[in-house]
Amino acid sequence: PTNGASVSVWLDTADVPTYPPLSGDLDTEVCVIGAGIAGLTTAYLLAREGRSVVVIDALGIGAGETGRTTAHLFPPDEWYSFIEDKFGAANSRLVADSYARAIDLVESISNEIKAKENIDCAFERLDGYLFALPGNGFQDLEKEYRSARRAGVAVELQPSVPGLSFDSGPAVRYANQAQFHPLKYLAGLARAIERLGGRLAVELRLACFRVALRLIGEPLHSRALARHELGLAAARRRAAERLEREAKLLELLVRLRGAEVRLARVEAKLLELLLAHIGALRQRARLRGRRQRL
After folding, report:
1. What burial letters (b/e) apply to 156-186, b meaning 16+ CB within 10 Å?
2. pTM beyond 0.90
């Protein structure tokens, strides 16, 4: 889970700095909410360009998804065949180019962290493989291979994954992928952000929202709070309208039930009268029969 209840192998093998909550108001150009890979990488790049940056997080450095990632920089989970089918070949090429640039950026930052912060992120280029055991997983490897090639990815279709203790069957090889230690990467980024004049702090989730409003300025703060209050008022109004509709519906159901009861009573009375009439007709018929015999 990402609520801090468990410790991943990455969290257990990295010296991750900790930070206290913000102690008061401050001025900054940029407030980054979230101290994972995306947040700290963004904050580092901004700080490197001379921007004033503050990073705040609900739990701590890498305490969410980043601290529990697989740590391999690999093609998207949807795979290129799916992306091409849903969004077209041109957009599939954009995704492939984005992934390649992202890996290059992480490699470049990892080298900077190693040189300037003396932290080795264990970044390593290596090949990735996609295979499917019989009856499981990805079924159309050739389609993925063709789609990846059209997207500009360096791929090969191979008879099996080398180096495994079992026969994987056919596999798609994605060349020049990467893996790294995500928490060492974040530890290096955090220290680099501090060295460049940035600040990091840990807050509760609701406090993060309040701090973000303070940081972006009073006019926007006021408008944001006003929108928040309007949203609450609208929600209350919708809830009241819903309750009113439900009350009217309940009243209608009660009336219908009462009408059903009255109708049942009328039907019972009519049935009683009908039975009495039938009984009278039978009595008359019997009397008529006696008179005729006499």
Report:
1. eebeebeeeeeebeebbbbeebbbbbbbbbb
2. no
